[in-house]
Specification:
4-stranded mixed sheet; alpha/beta; 26 strands; 24% strand
């Protein structure tokens, strides 16, 4: 038996050889089989090489979930480049930070998408060495990649297993997003492990809306699905009616969604008459799972993050339904768990709560700006900053986040980033962001702001909308006098008390 590929170009070569005519990518604008995906990726790689892309060159990619996203990604990897996926919700400030932090040399971006005019935003920022702007396609055409074409080039040396493959941004717990670096080997192993635990086979089809600029979309949805010779059914803009049509028409079997999307599908008038074929995926331990999936489903409950990436823990698809719905499961693939006392770092006993730590070859190589040794402890464990415990069966039970992070609609928002943007406004003296429970989104961003002089709340919200992705903009914002903010004994603002106040003001309640 041949060993599994440990570089992404080798993975695509293997898939094209084994499944040449099977569909790999499906969209409203066409279908690509694995052989065509490889051919087009090779063509892109040749064009990128002519732009000077070789081993280690960092290539930013700012596109929605179009087939071309995956084609270009494999083109980058084919010529040894490092893919830097960029969030299509970024405003100019966030985009500039990501480009600078990752030291992007070549940028491929769509001129505009939805309400974002990226051409204009990029014109205000320091330019990478090469910037290629692509026109958004109409409803039936493929994206025109000819702007990438320059004089012919030849492919450089292929990637090695330990070469950097991606830099994926995550808000984490700092004021600005952090760049998480993954190697070729790590992504291949993570994709294989995720596919195995999800039970994906060549006959499956996965709904591909979860953005590829997130680790969940790139690894668990795209790479895991493709690694089994299965197809990804792409959708770049969520609309519940169109999603239901796609799920039914394409006989999608593997489902990834954020809670508010699943609930939008359930609330749509056509849901009850739509014939769904969903049987696998994530969310088995959510309140919507019983309505989306059939009684005999094989969906899993999972825990993970960009650094792990992403499915760190889950019971496999063929475990009992009780196991899959009542915990987050044991480690996936070669990952190992350790639960430690957050204050001492000493491992706690089975069943005791502590900080979740994980190690394994699927994990991040490092954060940008840090050495690998700075990202793990002496035993090689990455400290997640999350709290949980492991039961007698070795399954993780996630308890909560120790970091000051607001999780909204499946995305992490650093409270410090929201606060920093509010403080950029000349009339703001202090800002404190907290999460407010929301039944469909998990949490919403809320903020308490101390101002220097009278200012309208809408002015501050507009200020945020111009500088933050939409999911980071506070949905609730209240003005307070500084002496009206609750304080701890240390003199610091008591955020726990602020969250209680936010819950009272909004009438929110923690979701079940």
């Amino acid at each position: 038996m041949n060993p599994s590929p440990v570089t992404l170009p080798a993975l695509l070569d293997d898939l094209a050889a084994r499944f040449p005519t099977r569909e790999a990518l499906v969209s409203v604008r066409g279908r690509l089989d694995f052989a065509t995906l490889r051919t087009r990726a090779d063509a892109v790689a040749t064009m990128l090489a002519a732009h000077g892309v070789g081993r280690g060159t960092r290539v930013g990619l700012l596109l929605p979930n179009w087939p071309e996203w995956i084609v270009i990604a494999f083109g980058v990897w084919r010529c040894g480049g490092v893919l830097v996926p960029l969030n299509t919700l970024y405003r100019a400030r966030e985009l500039g930070h990501a480009l600078a932090l990752a030291e992007v040399e070549v940028l491929i971006a769509v001129r505009r998408f939805l309400r974002n005019d990226f051409a204009t935003s990029l014109s205000t920022l320091p330019a990478p060495r090469v910037t290629v702007l692509l026109e958004p396609p109409d409803d039936s055409a493929a994206v025109d990649l000819s702007p990438l074409l320059v004089s012919s080039g030849s492919l450089p040396s292929p990637s090695a297993p330990d070469d950097d493959a991606t830099i994926v941004f995550t808000s984490g717990s700092t004021a600005e997003p952090k760049g998480v670096v993954h190697s070729q080997r790590a992504l291949c192993l993570a994709a294989a492990g995720d596919a195995a635990v999800l039970g994906i086979t060549p006959d499956d089809r996965t709904w591909g809306y979860l953005p590829f600029f997130f680790a969940g979309g790139l690894v668990a949805v795209a790479l895991a699905t493709l690694s089994r010779g299965a197809a990804v059914v792409l959708q770049d803009v969520f609309e519940a009616g169109e999603t239901l049509r796609l799920l039914e028409a394409e006989r999608v079997t593997v489902f990834f969604a954020w809670p508010h999307q699943a609930e939008a599908l359930l609330a749509h008038p056509r849901f009850t008459e739509t014939r769904l074929h969903l049987a696998k995926g994530v969310g088995a331990n959510t309140k919507w799972a019983a309505q989306i999936y059939p009684p005999d489903h094989h969906a899993v409950g999972s825990y993970g993050m960009t650094e792990t990436p992403p499915l760190c823990c889950a019971w496999p698809w063929d475990a009992s339904r009780e196991r899959r719905t009542t915990s987050h499961g044991p480690p996936v693939g070669r990952r190992e768990l350790r639960i430690v006392d957050p204050s001492t770092g000493v491992a706690v006993t089975t069943g005791a709560d502590g900080e979740i730590c994980v190690r394994g070859p699927e994990l991040l190589s490092r954060y940008l700006g840090q050495s690998p040794a700075e990202c793990v402890d002496a035993d090689g464990f990455f400290h997640t900053g999350d709290l949980g415990h492991v039961d007698a069966d070795g399954a993780l039970h996630f308890v909560g986040r120790a970091k000051d992070v607001i999780k909204t609609a499946g995305a992490n928002v650093a409270a410090a980033e929201v606060e920093a943007v509010l403080l950029e406004h000349a009339d703001v003296a202090a800002a404190h962001a907290v999460g407010v429970p929301d039944a469909s989104r998990g949490e919403n961003v809320a903020a308490f702001v101390v101002v220097k002089r009278a200012v309208d709340v809408d002015v501050l919200l507009t200020h945020c909308r111009e500088r933050l992705a939409s999911y980071k903009v506070p949905r609730h914002l209240w003005l307070r006098a500084e002496d009206a903010l609750p304080q701890k004994g240390s003199g610091k603002v008591d955020k726990a008390a602020l969250r209680v106040e936010a819950v009272r003001l909004t009438g929110a309640a923690d979701p079940p």
